[in-house]
Specification:
Layout lengths: L25 H12 L17 H6 L2 H8 L5 H26 L4 H12 L16 H10 L11 H24 L5 H11 L5 H9 L5 H4 L2 H21 L1 H7 L6 H9 L3 H34 L3 H27 L31
Helix pairs in contact: 1-4, 3-4, 3-15, 4-6, 4-7, 5-7, 7-8, 8-11, 9-15, 11-14, 11-15, 13-14
């Protein structure tokens, strides 16, 4: 089956897309930051500094839309911070792919990753090395801004999530070099790490100013809800990015490949099975919110303020998912090299800080 024969399913998304009113303010400010860190070239011509993107590539990613769609209620300062965070994550991804995945340089990837860990301190005010490239410069700058007083409690969890994100890149490269396709059960957990999904609750909190109440944060219901929330993000990305990652970059770390290998089915059937799994995770998220969370809230005796804060956080999580879905289905980043985004099937669907969990509900 050729790339052109594969039909991408249109994933269900019941939550409406909203756009942050500060979207127009993002692009110019983000360009300046990306240039200062060395991620972005001054023009489309190559330079000695070896930036990650040309200006045309930078704008084609539409990261400003991603940020404004996923965080529609964020303040301008919160939106700017998360926009830089999104840019850094994509810069790391593209730099890692060009420097190590395309060359098969596993030793270089490991050394690069070890250095990045030094930019993820657990304590405020810790010494950081002198940045040697655009990815390190961007991360060093973010460390000075990611943890204002209202989000200071996030330092260990967020930096821990980023450490797992960059470590997962090395494992992805090792899998691709050896042709090892992850097992389906293993992959579900691994994808949360390789997509940096553990950072998403931080972004929701940054946008809404609301936290999941401490009294239920470690409950089985909330942990399951967060797992479903994070699974949709990474697994839906595998469908959107299948042709870019598997056919253009020869990557084996993709849900469609994992299902095809595990179940012994062809690519189109694996694509359909992947869509069913992504939809199931979204339905589980909805089920938990509608059916299991209300009795938990009642048993925990949450007050009016706590319930209001929980509802605000859940609203932010829904917006985060709908914004990602909109970006996946429209961003040029996920078109195959030299082509356009493949035609998607029609559908009647509506379009538009994590502590260790305990087994108790």
């Amino acid at each position: 089956m050729t790339v052109q024969d594969i039909e991408l399913p249109l994933l269900r998304m019941p939550f409406p897309v909203r756009v942050n009113p500060y979207l127009p303010a993002l692009r110019e400010e983000a360009e300046t930051w990306a240039r200062e860190t060395g991620m972005l070239a001054d023009g489309d011509a190559p330079t000695a500094r070896r930036p990650i993107w040309t200006r045309s590539q930078f704008h084609a990613m539409a990261v400003d839309q991603l940020t404004a769609w996923t965080l529609p209620d964020a303040s301008l300062d919160g939106l700017r911070l998360n926009h830089r965070f999104n840019l850094w994550a994509l810069a790391w991804d593209d730099y890692f792919a060009a420097a190590f995945k395309q060359t098969g340089d596993l030793a270089g990837a490991q050394a690069f990753t070890v250095r990045l860990h030094a930019f993820l301190p657990q304590e405020p005010g810790a010494w950081l090395p002198e940045p040697a490239n655009a990815v390190e410069r961007g991360l060093a700058d973010l460390q000075h801004h990611l943890f204002p007083p209202s989000l200071a409690h996030w330092r260990p969890a967020l930096n821990g999530a980023l450490a797992r994100y960059i470590d997962a890149g090395v494992q992805e490269l090792a899998n691709s070099l050896t042709g090892r396709v992850p097992d389906l059960i293993e992959y579900a957990q691994f994808r949360r790490e390789s997509f940096a999904a553990y950072t998403a609750p931080y972004s929701v909190e940054l946008s809404t100013g609301a936290r999941i109440p401490d009294r239920i944060r470690r409950s089985r219901t909330v942990c399951a809800l967060l797992d479903a929330f994070m699974d949709y993000m990474g697994l839906a990305n595998d469908i959107a990015s299948y042709q870019r990652e598997v056919h253009d970059e020869h990557d084996v770390n993709n849900l469609v490949v994992v299902l095809g290998t595990s179940l012994g089915i062809n690519v189109q059937d694996a694509m359909d099975a992947a869509a069913d799994l992504v939809t199931a995770r979204l339905r589980h998220f909805e089920h938990l919110v509608q059916s299991e969370l209300p009795p938990l809230v009642q048993r925990a005796g949450l007050g009016h303020g706590e319930r209001t804060e929980l509802e605000a956080w859940l609203g932010g999580a829904r917006s985060f998912l709908s914004g990602l879905h909109a970006w996946y289905t429209g961003a040029p980043r996920y078109a195959p090299l030299g082509g356009s985004i493949p035609e998607q099937r029609t559908s009647t669907a509506t379009t538009p800080a994590l502590e260790r969990c305990s087994p108790a509900s």
